[in-house]
Design brief:
This protein is 23% helix and 31% strand. It has 220 residues and is of the alpha/beta class. Helix 5 (165-175) runs parallel beside helix 6.
């Protein structure tokens, strides 16, 4: 499995049986070409997470998985969409996914209800990982750690709208992950974060910080 960071909270996950996009807001990666994408996951309706999902779905035929209300909106715009709720495994040719609670808001064009925000737990090729979406620190992360035992997590650290570094470090502890990929930071001024401070605190916790540059890939 190959993971590529596309900036902000966007990732491409390449598997043996499909290629996945998560929260494809691509302003930091404007030359990205969505070739071979089979599935798109959107954590909530805000523009910096829905991003280019509808456009990519219409171009490639990739199915958008999102909370029911947001999926319906995507369908109304001509995308292929799969509307889901929280708390049940959804099977795919490459693995399975469950939507987990996130504490945030979700609106379409900042006007209309986008349903509840979520994060996702993925099981792919013997690895389990958690993409938290936009969220505050929440005790649900203890449950995610206990039930799903993720190997690593993608956590927002920028503060202001989501967890900051201090709370992301606590989330890593509760999730009991061995490694953390930071996201949702330094895209714009309100979410600027000191990545060196994050790295230090995660290492002090005995975990591995995985700091990824835009377009950087890692093999898991």
């Amino acid at each position: 499995m190959k993971i590529t960071y596309l900036g902000h909270s966007a990732f491409e996950i390449e598997t043996k049986n499909g290629k996945i996009l998560i929260d494809p807001f691509l302003v930091m990666c404007p030359d990205y070409k969505p070739e071979g994408i089979t599935d798109i996951f959107v954590t909530h309706a805000h523009g910096d997470h829905l991003g280019n999902a509808i456009e990519i779905s219409k171009k490639t035929g990739a199915k958008i998985t999102a909370i029911f209300e947001l999926a319906n909106y995507c369908s109304s715009q001509g995308a292929t969409a799969n509307g889901i709720g929280l708390g049940a495994w959804i099977n795919y040719p490459w693995g399975r996914v469950i939507a987990a609670p996130a504490f945030h808001s979700s609106s379409i064009d900042y006007k209309y209800n986008g349903g509840c925000p979520c994060g996702y737990v993925f099981e792919i090729e013997g690895k389990t990982f958690y993409h938290a979406g936009d969220t505050a620190l929440t005790g649900e992360m203890k449950t995610i750690g206990e039930l799903y035992q993720p190997d690593f997590a993608m956590l927002p650290i920028g503060g202001h709208y989501t967890m900051d570094i201090e709370h992301a470090v606590k989330a890593a502890e509760w999730l009991e992950v061995s490694a953390v990929i930071p996201m949702h930071y330094n895209t714009f001024e309100a979410i600027n974060a000191n990545i060196k401070d994050f790295e230090r605190q995660i290492r002090e916790l005995g975990k591995m910080p995985v700091i990824m540059g835009v377009n950087q890939s890692i093999e898991i």
